[in-house]
Write a structure and sequence with these properties.
Blueprint (H helix, E strand, L loop, with lengths): L17 H7 L2 H16 L6 H25 L10 H26 L4 H15 L10 H21 L4 H30 L6 E3 L5 E3 L2 H31 L1
Antiparallel strand pairs: 1-2
Length: about 240
């Protein structure tokens, strides 16, 4: 990325080649939402490693790859040089892979997985492509799709059932995902759509604190960094406790 060029996200790499694919995956956020799958699975009375791995791969394909590819197709918010044809192909292959894993999972988990297999791809397309007038492209839609849904999926894949603990955890993931979007939305606005920031804060003692892009972004992106690392650490701790 050229010196002084504004990055579309704090984790974005320089444009071009493999670095565009890194940026497209939104690594901190993808890891964050995969953590919800682990948390949901680890709430089960018994955790089967093979089911957990399969669920994580399915969500990585759907959320980490397909959803972000659709998002980049819809207006090029990251400004990558990845061709539209490549993004369409990646979306199709990734969603197909996630669905195939889900269908295979039916043989072990049961037909209770069917609604999740159907709803998952619909959420990816409805949210990221802003289908149906953008009805799902809201804070509530994001929190339900990327927060609550992974927790419930992780639990159901282990137990073939739902329980109060999983529902409560899904509620927690929903709330955290709301916070994520409320922080990331203004951060994206500043990074991607704002030409300049000017102004100041006048404190009670008369001190003037200048406002600029860095000052506004620091608390929002600092919180997002901390939350993403925190959720990954929590999910890792649960996995270690349950699988060792």
């Amino acid at each position: 990325m050229a010196e002084g060029e504004r990055r579309p996200a704090y984790y974005a790499a320089a444009r071009g080649g493999w670095r565009d694919w890194w940026t497209l995956l939104h690594p901190p956020y993808t890891a964050w939402h995969l953590s919800y799958v682990v948390i949901g699975a680890c709430l089960a009375p018994r955790v089967e490693t093979s089911r957990l791995i399969a669920t994580l791969i399915a969500f990585f394909l759907a959320v980490g790859v397909a959803a972000h590819a659709v998002d980049e197709l819809h207006g090029r918010p990251l400004g990558t040089t990845i061709s539209s044809a490549a993004l369409v192909a990646v979306t199709a292959v990734s969603l197909a892979g996630a669905v195939v894993l889900g269908v295979v999972g039916i043989t072990k988990v049961g037909v209770v997985l069917v609604p999740f297999i159907v709803v998952g791809p619909l959420l990816v397309l409805a949210y990221n492509a802003e289908l149906f007038g953008g009805i799902a492209h809201t804070t509530v839609g994001f929190a339900a799709a990327w927060g609550a849904f992974p927790v419930l999926s992780g639990y159901v894949a282990q137990t073939s059932d739902l329980a109060l603990a999983a529902v409560l955890a899904a509620g927690a993931a929903f709330a955290l995902s709301c916070a994520q979007r409320l922080l990331s939305t203004p951060a994206r606005l500043i990074r991607r759509s704002t030409r300049s920031v000017e102004g100041s804060l006048t404190l009670a003692d008369g001190t003037a604190v200048p406002l600029d892009e860095k000052t506004l972004l620091a608390p929002m992106e600092g919180a997002l960094r901390a939350m993403s690392w925190g959720m990954v650490a929590l999910a890792s701790a649960l996995a270690v406790a349950r699988l060792t």
